[in-house]
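Hello K.,

You asked for the raw outputs rather than the summary table, so here they are, unedited. I folded two proteins back to back in the same session to keep the settings identical. This is the first:
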Amino acid sequence: GTAGATLDAYLIITDQESGKRIVFKALGISFGPTGLQGPSTLALGSNVEIRLNNAAMIILNANGTFVSWDCEGFASMAIDADIEFCRNFIVPLNPSTLEPKPEPERYRLNVVTTIPSWLEFYVTVNAEPFAVAGYETIKWSLTNMLVDFSSTETPAFTPLSGYASPFYDGQAMSGQWKGFYVQNISVKFPTSFSNSGTTITASANDVMIDDCGFSGAVGVQTEILCIDDGN
């Protein structure tokens, strides 16, 4: 018998937005007349951070991010990633107490999915409560958030009235839009907002975080100030 042969395989992907080069590799793969006799996946050597915009970046986790390949080359890519928001925009809250988490913790969303090409996907993920930086006493809680990184497809939704973007024609969002969207969200205001000293809970809809910033509409259901107490 013979020992056969081995090869080292590499795939280098250049992120078009940041210019960063991401290297996937597999070393010492056995192959023979019938093809590969070892793993058909290329793995990251370590976690990779990629800036998405001025508010967020994506962290590719090496343990769950890999490229599947065959004789034709690239087949698909598995993503296990954390989307991390700059603390200057979003402050993470403790889910139990709704108090801000201490520095240097950042607000994160975890994404696990399989994609056909580099960072082309949209997915709905669970999200923990958060606050907008500078307004930490106002607590935002939600269950699902749309994360859209696709440059060709965007799920149908209607943004807040008055929203302006190159990717919105007044009727529908363009497939080129990228960002984060939540249809419904609950908000808790501090007791100082209430005439009775009780915590006010409100609801918000069409909350979006994208290159245009943070937008959404808030409706308060609890009485803030009795009309007889007004001036």
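The second followed immediately with the same parameters:
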Amino acid sequence: MISEADVQKLRAVHARGPSVLSLYVWVPVDVSALRGLPASADELFTLAEEGADGRGAVRARSREGRAAREMLAAHAREWMGHTAAIFTCAEVGLAEAFPLPCLLPDRAVLAAPPHVRPPLVALPGWPASPVAGVGRQHAGVFPIGGPRDA
């Protein structure tokens, strides 16, 4: 599971352009559903690319997407029933992957810094609170709580 030190390490990363891929994807409990993960990840990468700028984002999507798919394939069976958080960037040598203990919306973000807000809700002691999400096409309020008691 992700720790506060892991999040702080990610916060220190900053690329020159939108080449850091942050991927959050739910890993299903059903083994047969794992086959669909690469296609789901590809759809998320496409959405992330549309939100980033320029041709550099297209090159980054290909390179970083391939690295993220490899990490997802390597860890999917051990992370069943968790949200996978994957961060890749060849420019800065970033390749990190963590299971998160809570269900989060599937999302991919291609930006200069890693998108670390979702892992923050997985840290112990994170207070329960509603979070407003606003995008170009969608907006909503999401109930985000602290980690569940084991």
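The CA atoms of residues 102 and 148 lie 8 Å apart.

Happy to rerun anything if the numbers look odd on your end.

Regards,
P.
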